[in-house]
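Memo to structure team: turn this sequence into structure tokens by end of day. - J.P.
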Amino acid sequence: MGFISWLDKHLEETFLIIMLVLIACVSMAQVIIRKIPGMASLTWAEEICRFFWIWSVFVSLPYTIKMENMLRVGVLKDLLPDAIKKTC
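Reply from structure team:
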């Protein structure tokens, strides 16, 4: 039961960390390979990074709900006049 409990608590954040590391590594490899003369750039790097990014966005929503750390649009609310702020 210890592994199942750990997996329940940390699955999303582990997945998000892995996605971030993969995005960084693939992007860095693409930059390095582009700078080497005579080497063709990776044709799949941009697409795989885009898919990793999309999956991380979809996984981050349940993670933020579980952690009760939802992003709020506070900046827009701060720009409103005081009369409108009270109604929001």
